[in-house]
Amino acid sequence: MMARSQILVHIEKPVNYTLFDVQWIPSSARLISMGSHPRGTGIWQVYQMSKGELQLIEEIKTPSAIKCGTLAGNTREDRQLATGDFNGNLSVWDLENSAQPVYTVNAHSSIINGIDGAGGANAGEGAAELVTCGRDGCVKVWDLRTKESPVAVIEAEQGQTRQDCWTVAFGGATSNTQRLVSAGFENGDVKIFDLKTMKVQWETNVGYGVCSVEFDRKDIEKNKLTVCTLESRLFVFDLTTKHPTKGYAFVRQKAHKSTIWTGRHLPQNRDVFMTCGGNGSMCLWKYEYPAKRFVEGSDDHFEGVAGNLQLVEETAVATQPITTFRWSADHLGLAACTSFDQTVRVLAVTGLNCI
């Protein structure tokens, strides 16, 4: 284990509701926490970092519990928060005038489990879009210029069993026409959809329910995909070379001694990422590439070569599961997380420029 970094808790802010997500507001010292009151209503709050504390500056209550949110997929000037709730509603809020959402649609028949954005400014090329996934097994892509219905719906074919989709992420947003979506399902399926061709580009099953998927970057050709699952399993797939039958090479690791709820790549270094576990711990990882990323196999087809995962640091920061983790894109090492102990934490991760 490398010992050049530390994961330090800088601020702890207890709240009186169940926390499900947190987001940094770009180009600011503010963050947004989201979640659910015991009676089933929702809430999101804006906090300002000031003098070593989180100061509440705005609070919005919603009719339904909020499961997830994102500020990706719009310009820094817009600063619009998109949320998904337990009733399947996708809502978009203007942070400058947040009394009511500027847009709401019943996107799924049940809970929206995950949401991501791409396009717009600083989040990949092409139009600003959102992608959602739900308990109904559907993945839907939304262009907010055409708000009435999704621009793409990905679901099980007729006769197939619908699996609860737990997580979704954009990638490959390298031009106005290129965009990928990865989705993870409760039965262990991981899929990558090509939105240009509207086809499944690749799929596999990792054997455990998939809690989190993330490309190491949204705005580059596909490079790596990190997959976090139940039963302490972590996978990193090298997406540069696909064998016709073996698929993509990958490295697998056990961590946290519990469910791995989330994995997030460092914005300033795509080969460094943090995972968070059901035991309240965090693990900081460095992906090390192999000397050659592909070799010619015995069947005359090229196949990928997986790298290695180096555990840089592991720290317990909570006694309950950490539900989500977000790096700040503006300040190296600044991060925030939420936990089922009803606490928002601001973290400082040191030594990242030395990894």
What are the SSEs and their pairings?
Elements: E1 7-14, E2 18-24, E3 30-36, E4 42-50, E5 53-62, E6 66-70, E7 80-85, E8 89-94, E9 103-106, E10 112-118, E11 129-134, E12 139-143, E13 152-154, E14 165-171, E15 180-185, E16 189-194, E17 199-205, E18 210-215, E19 224-229, E20 233-243, E21 247-254, E22 260-266, E23 269-277, E24 281-288, E25 294-296, E26 302-304, E27 308-316, E28 322-327, E29 334-339, E30 343-349
Antiparallel strand pairs: 1-30, 2-3, 3-4, 4-5, 6-7, 7-8, 8-9, 10-11, 11-12, 12-13, 14-15, 15-16, 16-17, 18-19, 19-20, 20-21, 22-23, 23-24, 24-27, 25-26, 28-29, 29-30
Structural commentary:
The protein has 355 residues and is mostly beta strands. The protein has one domain: YVTN repeat-like/Quinoprotein amine dehydrogenase (Methylamine Dehydrogenase, Chain H). The protein is 0% helix and 56% strand. The protein is built from no helices and 30 strands. A four-stranded antiparallel β-sheet has the order 1-30-29-28, with no helix packed on it. A hairpin with a 5-residue loop joins strand 3 and strand 4.
- Beta-strand segment tally: 30
Number of helices, counting only DSSP H or I runs of 4 residues or more: 0
Could you name the ranges where pLDDT drops below 50 across 5 or more consecutive residues? none
How far is the first residue's CA from the last residue's CA? 12 Å
- H/E element string? EEEEEEEEEEEEEEEEEEEEEEEEEEEEEE
Characterize the main sheet.
4 strands, antiparallel
Number of domains: 1
State the CATH architecture: 7 Propeller
